[in-house]
Amino acid sequence: MIAQRLEPEALTPAELDEYLARGWYRIGRALITTEYLVSDGELRSTLWTRLDLHHHRFSSSLRKRMARNHRRFRVEVGDLVLDGAHEQLYTRYRIMAGGSRAESLAEVLGGEQGQALFHTREISVWSGDTLVAFSWFDLGETSVQSLIGVYDPEQRRHGLGFWTLLLEIAHAAEIGMRFHYAGYVLSEPSGMDYKRDVGSLEYLDPVTKRWLADPPYSAHQSPAEILRQRLDEAAEALARSGTSVSTFFNSALQIPGLIDQVAECATTPILLICGSTEHPWGVLTTWEQERESYALFSGRPIAVTLESGDPEDTTTAPLEVRLFIVQEHLGDYPSAEDVAFWMRHYLPALMPLSAS
Q: pLDDT (tens digit, 9 = 90+) per residue, 29-41?
């Protein structure tokens, strides 16, 4: 779920450091940041992380693990290589790893523009003359950003993906860098938690924008968790009152660039919408954590299904787009029951200003 996206025409190493320190991260030729992610069908809060290399030392268990692999494999550090051997290894890795991933390494890099924008280096791992793993990372002035780690599924037992991450950290320290950035983890347990195993990470507080030694919120108290709980309570209260309600993820935060193209588009990650039976307008219910209250907005729900532009394309699934165009702020309410009361009494008579 991409909340913000930038495609700079130029980027100095010092500017990359600044973006990384503010919780931005490279995707292709762009920089993105977000406070939320949809994982396994649920909204989750992201926790942007970094490792302070000036205060880091690998644990003895990690040093032993690294030493074992150093005895098994050969490691090289240099400029990134984009060739058939790398693409073939990435294809096998992508099939094994699954999920939503770039279809090629060229796409990972963002094409020629991305390669020109970032100073990307490579750590490669070899078994004899066979490439079995590699990682790419970008150099800032005082920071290193991990871009991707790829390994041969047949060598999975050796933990090469995690090992190349450790090699990145060791190399960054050797060349005098201050911070290593590996992106985000999620607020709840997930497959990204291996990033926490490298050592004592710092976490970016999304409110103060300060880096902390511990996550900025406790378990099950993340912004995403609270938002889900409050909207679930509102949906249940609305259902009990007999009001029809629909819940969707906001496509404006999932499709890059869409939010900039649609004026007055709601930016809340979850759309909880009650529709009017009199006209195609409705009411959006949001939870405002800072004020600890619900906010209601009139507007127009939009649901569009986008098909592939290629009539011969039978593999790309149709894309369902769900948006809400805000018309007017209707008020703030302290409880889910107050929201249900308002909907039951005023939704049938609601008429947007442009239609009156």
A: 999 999 998 888 8
Q: CA 142 to CA 15: how far, in whole Å? A: 11
Q: Which residues contact 110 (CB under 8 A, 6 or more apart)?
A: 27, 28, 29, 30, 117
Q: Tell me the C-alpha distance between 47 and 332, whole Å.
A: 29
Q: What is the pLDDT of residue 355?
A: 44
Residue 297 sits at the vertex; the CA angle it makes with 296 and 301, to the nearest 5 degrees, is 125
- Phi, psi for 65 (deg, rounded to 5): -65, -40
Q: Which long-range contacts (CB under 8 A, 24 or more apart) does 214-217 make?
A: 215/47, 215/187, 216/47, 217/45, 217/187
| Residue 31 DSSP one-character state | E
Closest CA to 275 of 287, 263, 285, 286: 285
Domain ranges of the chain: 4-212, 223-355
Q: Is 23 exposed, middle or buried (0-12, 13-18, 19+ CB in 10 A)?
A: buried
* Spatial CA neighbour of 75 closest among 143, 13, 158, 144: 158
CATH placement of domain 4-212? 3.40.630.30
More reliable by pLDDT, 99 or 233: 233
Task: Report how far Cα 341 is from the mean position of its chain's Cα atoms.
Answer: 36
323-343 pLDDT, tens digit each: 999 999 999 999 999 999 999
For residue range 136-179, list pLDDT tens digits in order. 999 999 999 999 999 999 999 999 999 999 999 999 999 999 99
